[in-house]
Design brief:
The protein has 351 residues and is mainly alpha-helical. 52% of the residues lie in helices and 3% in strands. It has 16 helices and 2 strands. Residues 340-351 have a biased composition (Basic and acidic residues).
């Protein structure tokens, strides 16, 4: 080990990740936790560990019941740290370079149907109790959920929005995403109406008027926290008759992407709207197209015709065309498409 190694190599590594790669705060915090876990397992000095030590750490994590995704992420953090250590000359070898990871399985995203989304938004619009405080909370929560579903923003991106970004009845919002990357996202009419209603209340309240955050809080961060927002979303899901365990702020991001894709949107466009750096991240939403492709084959492929050359009876393809039996949405080009996959500016009528 070189004498050039600093007293706190992890802190130096995290500084470099932030400065050179534009890593987000949440990413930095996750790397810090992962490397702390490795240091605790290995005796404290990360630069003194060898390949066998890291392999034993991986085995210990599996024995503790940690998921494949967690183990894969932690090994990734270790690999990046030791690669950085070699580049800086703190080590001559990379003990994590040839270790095989668990290979994180990518589960299909948990999402909501358009009807469930509308029920959730309707529940958010209703005050949870009597009095002006409950009415103000409903205005805020309704605005937040409308913005999430209209734009597909991450919860952290929504909570970090400055009030200045929402002034002037904008048709688009500038969002700062992971790594400091910026993108423009369009707003639906319901989202603009909810935003205008929240801003009117916010500007009339002297306690909120001067705050920099669009959704301010009296806490140290000066804005609503992710934990509190998560709690509010689950409480609202329960009031909407939806299993709270199946709903989080990120579920609305998944619903946004899934419903757009079912409505015929291009994957590249969805990638841009979501702020994904790699199209492979967006491709996970392609599962919603299965029913549409099956219905297309049944209606247009020669082998889908009856033995006499005539088209198959309608009942043989009806279930798939209606989104039944195939586990996917209805054909977005067929009847009722606007109900199956509402566009950003067109949702089922409010009840």
């Amino acid at each position: 080990m070189s004498a050039r190694a600093p007293a706190d190599p992890v802190a130096r590594f995290l500084e470099a990740m932030r400065a050179e790669r534009g890593a987000a705060d949440n990413t930095i915090a996750a790397y810090a936790r992962d490397l702390s876990d490795l240091a605790e397992h290995g005796g404290g000095d990360l630069l003194a560990l060898g390949r066998a030590d890291i392999a034993a750490w991986m085995a210990a994590m599996e024995a503790r019941g940690l998921s494949r995704a967690t183990r894969a992420r932690r090994l990734s953090a270790a690999r990046q740290f030791y690669r950085f250590a070699c580049e800086e000359g703190w080590r001559e070898d990379d003990p994590a370079a040839r270790l095989r990871g668990p290979g994180a399985r990518r589960p299909l995203p948990r999402t909501l149907s358009p009807e469930q989304v509308e029920a959730l938004l309707e529940a958010a619009r209703r005050p949870a109790g009597p009095g002006p405080a409950a009415q103000a909370a409903a205005l805020r929560l309704s605005c937040m959920l409308e913005l999430l579903y209209a734009t597909g923003m991450r919860a952290s991106e929504l909570l970090d929005l400055p009030a200045a970004a929402a002034r002037g009845d904008p048709r688009m919002l500038l969002v700062r995403g992971k790594g400091g990357r910026e993108r423009m996202v369009p707003l639906s009419e319901p989202a603009r109406a909810a935003l205008a209603a929240w801003l009117a209340h916010r500007d009339a309240d002297p306690r909120l008027r001067g705050a920099a955050a669009l959704f301010p809080s009296r806490g140290r961060a000066g804005r609503l926290t992710r934990a509190r927002f998560f709690q509010l979303v689950r409480e609202t899901a329960a009031r909407a008759g939806i299993d709270p365990a199946s709903v989080s702020p990120h579920t609305l991001r998944h619903a946004f992407a899934t419903h757009l894709l079912a409505g015929g949107a291009d994957l590249r466009a969805i990638q841009t709207l979501l702020g994904h750096a790699d199209i492979s991240t967006t491709e996970i939403y392609a599962h919603v197209m299965q029913a549409r492709l099956q219905a297309l084959v049944l209606s247009g492929h020669p082998l889908a015709a009856g033995g006499d050359g005539s088209a198959r009876p309608a009942d043989e393809g009806a279930a798939l065309a209606a989104g039944k039996g195939g586990g996917g949405p209805a054909d977005p080009d067929g009847p009722g498409a606007d109900r199956a996959a509402p566009r950003l500016d067109k949702r089922p009528p409010r009840r």
